[in-house]
Design goal:
Elements lengths: L31 H14 L5 H12 L8 H16 L4 E9 L3 E10 L3 E2 L28 E9 L5 H10 L7 E5 L5 H10 L4 E5 L2 H4 L55 E4 L1 H8 L5 E2 L13 E3 L4 E8 L6 E11 L4 E11 L7 H23 L6 E8 L7 H9 L1 H7 E6 L8 E6 L4 H8 L11 H9 L18 H7 L4 E7 L12 H8 L4 H19 L7 H10 L1 H11 L7 H24 L7 H16 L18 E4 L2 E7 L1 H8 L3 H28 L6
Parallel strand pairs: 4-5, 5-6, 6-7, 12-13, 12-14, 14-16
Antiparallel strand pairs: 1-11, 2-3, 2-10, 4-10, 8-9, 11-13, 15-16, 17-18
Helix pairs in contact: 1-15, 2-8, 8-15, 9-13, 11-15, 16-18, 18-21, 19-21, 20-21
The protein binds zinc ion.
The site of zinc ion has 7 residues, from helix 8.
Length: 705
């Protein structure tokens, strides 16, 4: 995955929402009696994840490199399946054959001045017995093969605006080797822009200002990136297998040519030690001051006089397709088996991947074990819970996207929530976020989990770390993209949550993301792995056992209302004085009113004993339609796979979350009429969501707003 997804997204603090009129200790969606039983069940579940087990799984999965499409991934598949079987869970493996050319070799030379071949491999470091083993070549995923010799141009972060600046400086990268620092945007967009501007190759390097010595002591002395550490990572800009956009890569699947969406130039990540050997001698145009990074010399744009040679070989001509394996363990629900909570994390990595993402896989496994043990003890959840590990996430969310496309009908109908675990143990600081409809569940479940490092609950620790005032909640990020929730959220409109522990780290996508780093810096006692799993068990059970699904559409609508000023100001910037968000605002207002009315009806219906099962089935079926209504089958203009109209990863900056993308993208395209159309389209879909909420209320016997 990418390092800055929703855990750290900065949204304004939301005030605590006015408490619904529930009896003390009553959980939303539960009767008073059901609340007590559920609390007892969660209290039992959170005792079960265990540091010794977490450590055992972590070492089994994360001691050696396990890149998607290699035999090592068959071994991690077999380990996860073996454990889940041992815990008594029915299991399944889904195999997809996907476009996944591997790099077979890479060399980089400084040709002029002072010819030197750079040493690209990440060397063994003292005190880390896991370093120095097999490594995947330092080539970005989906890089083209090639052999290029050309002068260098430093392009800062390689963003769209950086190339505009180069234009204004009169510097072209046409035929040159572009050198960009990591950061500020997804690397796939850097590759796209370099190619678009005619660069013959792209070198990406980790500037010490980003995650190296400027930020802290470097490995093995500290957790940050050493001068020889390399960040690998995909440079593909589509989610899923590019040869099967929108359908699963199963046997005999129709395939399209991926040529239009994959890079055609070599893209190679290098360390800042090697980058300094190339950048120090650059001259030519002086840099804009903001382009200076953390290396100890003055940066220049070039071009030249430094000339480099970049050579990449791949198996694209001989074996472009590889088998990948998603694993599943399932607890079938006792009352509503067609309604499904999926908990997943990706199992592939660029190196040992002890943080990214053995940590998330371990959390998924410990959640599975906790709930499987309860099932053995006769406590089966009412809804189905699926424990998944995904393959080839690192190549463009491939395994999870293929699965979502494979099972889309079932998921669209019965998908209650997707809970994602990606990089959950790289430091002490807790973060969580997701769909606004589920944030209250995450906060509430955190109250049931002991804090890993302090007295009190995880909720107490979360609030203390976030330093929020009394009555305020910590910031919770919104889903953009960049991890395995994208298929569920962006493609199908299933609400998602994600959480984990983070901190300062410079081992992202490096060979040093290994057990030695984890034991020394990331999570020495495996307590954060366990705390993440405990929270997952509580959240999964809360969603699985509720009589009425505990989505909070009051918080949802309030959150949506908070976004309207940014849309209005985008219109004002274009000078579109006759456009405003009045219709959208009114629709969101109607949703909020209906959500409050539904909440009151729900609480009244659950004040005593639970309503009949048929009533609950009708109510929950309507609730599942609320956020599906905020997707559209034809997707966003120009990227039809992305159907959710609430959040998406910004197409021009994969790390930024775009809110109301159908509207915002029309504004960006400077298309006034299209923008007006998109505003009314979105308002209409909010009204459809409101209608689903009204159906839910009527099903409960309420007036239905
Ligand atoms: Zn990841």
């Amino acid at each position: 995955m990418r390092p800055r997804h929703l855990l750290v997204a900065a949204l304004a603090s939301l005030p605590c929402l006015s408490a619904a009129p529930l009896a003390a200790q009553q959980l939303p969606g539960y009767t008073p009696k059901g609340s007590a039983a559920e609390r007892a069940l969660e209290a039992d579940a959170v005792t079960r994840p265990d540091t010794a087990d977490a450590r055992k799984h972590s070492l089994a999965l994360g001691s050696t490199v396990h890149v998607a499409g290699t035999p090592a991934q068959a071994r991690t598949r077999d380990y996860v399946i073996g454990r889940m079987k041992a815990w008594g869970l029915p299991t399944e493996v889904r195999t997809y054959s996907v476009f996944l050319p591997h790099a077979t070799g890479v060399r980089v030379w400084r040709v002029r001045p002072d010819p030197e071949e750079l040493s690209l491999r990440e060397p063994a470091v003292p005190g880390d017995s896991f370093s120095g083993g097999d490594q995947y070549p330092t080539v970005n995923g989906s890089s083209a093969a090639g052999d290029v010799t050309a002068p260098l141009v430093y392009v800062n972060y390689g963003l769209i605006e950086d190339y505009a600046r180069l234009d204004s400086l009169g510097v072209s990268v046409e035929g040159k080797i572009a050198v960009a620092r990591y950061g500020r945007s997804f690397r796939g967009i850097k590759a796209r822009e370099a190619e678009k501007h005619g660069a013959a190759a792209l070198l990406l390097y980790s500037d010490p200002e980003d995650d190296g010595y400027v930020r802290g002591d470097v490995y093995p002395e500290g957790p940050m990136r050493p001068s020889f550490g390399v960040q690998r990572g995909s440079v593909e800009n589509v989610d899923g297998d590019p040869t099967t956009p929108g359908w699963p890569s199963t046997e005999g699947a129709e395939r399209v040519d991926p040529d239009s969406v994959i890079p055609h130039i070599p893209v190679v990540p290098i360390s800042y030690g090697n980058a300094s050997k190339l950048l120090e001698g650059l001259r030519g145009t002086d840099i804009p001051q903001a382009w200076q990074g953390g290396l100890p010399f003055r940066y220049h744009v070039g071009p030249g006089p430094v000339v480099a040679r970049v050579q990449v070989t791949t198996d694209a001509d001989t074996k472009p397709f590889k088998d990948i394996w998603d694993t599943f363990g399932t607890v079938r629900g006792s009352e509503f088996p067609d309604q499904v909570i999926v908990i997943g994390g990706h199992r592939d990595a660029w190196g040992p991947g002890t943080d990214d993402n053995v940590s998330g896989s371990v959390s998924v496994m410990e959640i599975a074990r906790a709930i499987a043990e309860q099932v053995k003890a006769g406590k089966r959840p009412k809804r189905t819970i699926v424990f998944a590990t995904w393959d080839a996430e690192e190549w463009g969310l491939v395994g999870s996207s293929e699965y979502v496309e494979d099972d889309s009908l079932r998921l669209k109908k019965g998908g209650v929530a997707y809970l994602n675990q990606d990089m959950i143990a790289s430091g002490p600081r807790f973060g969580g976020g997701g769909s606004p409809s589920l944030r209250a569940v995450l906060r509430s479940a955190a109250e049931e989990v002991p804090a890993p490092d302090t007295a009190g609950s995880l909720w107490d620790a979360w609030r203390a770390q976030a330093d929020v005032a009394e009555g305020e909640n910590p910031d919770m990020g919104a889903p953009g993209g960049g991890s395995d929730y994208a298929g569920f959220y962006n493609h199908l409109g299933i609400p998602i949550l994600e959480w984990g522990f983070g901190g300062a780290q410079g081992i992202y996508h490096s060979a040093y993301d290994d057990p030695a780093w984890m034991r020394r810096f990331g999570d020495p006692g495996y307590r954060h792995h366990v705390a993440a799993a405990r929270l997952g068990a509580a959240v999964a059970l809360r969603l699985a056992n509720a009589d009425v699904l505990p989505y909070d559409y009051v918080e949802y609508a309030e959150t949506m209302r908070g976004y309207l000023p940014s849309i209005d100001s985008a219109f004002a910037k274009r000078g579109w004085d006759d456009l405003d968000t009045g219709t959208l605002s009114a629709a969101i207002g109607r949703m909020e009113d209906q959500a409050r009315s539904f909440e009151a009806a729900r609480n009244a219906a659950l004040a005593g004993s639970a309503p009949p099962k048929a009533t609950l089935e009708r109510t929950n079926a309507a609730l599942l339609r609320v956020e599906r209504a905020l997707t559209r089958p034809e997707g966003l203009v120009g990227r039809s796979w992305f159907r959710n109209l609430i959040y998406v990863a910004d197409e021009d900056n994969g790390y930024a979350t775009m809110i109301f993308p159908s509207v915002k993208e029309a504004v960006r395209a400077d298309a006034r009429e299209r923008t007006a159309g998109e505003v009314s389209d979105l308002a209409g879909r909010f009204d459809d969501a409101t209608a689903a909420l009204r159906d839910a209320e009527q099903a409960l016997g309420g007036a239905g707003g």
